[in-house]
Amino acid sequence: MKLLITGFDPFGSESINPAYEAVKLLPDSIRDLDIIKLEVPTVFGQAGETLKQAMDIHQPDYVLCIGQAGGRSAVTPEKIAINLMDGRIPDNAGYQPFDTPVREDGPAAYFSSLPVKAMVQAIREAGIPSFLSYTAGTYVCNYLMYELLYLIDHHYPNTKGGFIHVPFMTSQVVNKPNGTPSMDLKTIASALEKAIEAIAENETDIQANMGETH
Predict the structure, then answer these.
(1) In sequence order, what are the beta bridge partners of 99?
(2) Three-state SS for 88?
(3) β-pairing verdict for 62-68 and 160-166
(4) Residue ranges of the alpha helices (H) in 106-184?
(5) Confidence bin at 202 (pLDDT 50/70/90)
(6) How far is CA 8 from CA 22, 41, 47, in A?
(7) Cα dist. 192→32, 128, 187, 202 in Å?
(8) What pTM value is reported for the model?
(9) Nearest CA to 49 among 143, 131, 112?
(10) Catalytic amino acids?
């Protein structure tokens, strides 16, 4: 089985993005999942196109997108994506949408199809701060999560997908105000690995339960 995991390139005033930096540290196989790593641009529209191309090529069983949430102190799997693009700042192509739907024909929101509560628990059991988030914002992170779930809904019914936000990595907060939350990059990568292990274990449990009922 295959899991496609994406991370964004740097955006705003940052020269690095812990999302893809952490993704790069992951092993190429976790449990029985082959891990496919992909960097996506922090650009509305283009991020979704890059994701769709990769899904067409690799036909993954799971897709997990990772994004930076500066100001958060924990690794936060997202429960919901909303059909709204509203940019606090322009994306990396200079586009700053205002009150714009991700998809005109899409529902108001999609829920993650990954076992988000089990992912939070697995990360916490590894001694890493984590909590479930019910807002992915309205920037490119939320856009990509919504687009992913829209694509699954319309084109990839056998795929499951979701999103995780991660804090600033430590080096990013050196010149930020005192008290700005951060996390060591290796710790972020470890949290992602634990989340993926939870996904794999959940699949094993589902298959076992199916076997018991047939």
Answers:
(1) none
(2) coil
(3) parallel
(4) 116-125, 140-154
(5) confident
(6) 11, 6, 9
(7) 16, 10, 9, 15
(8) 0.94
(9) 143
(10) 78, 141, 165
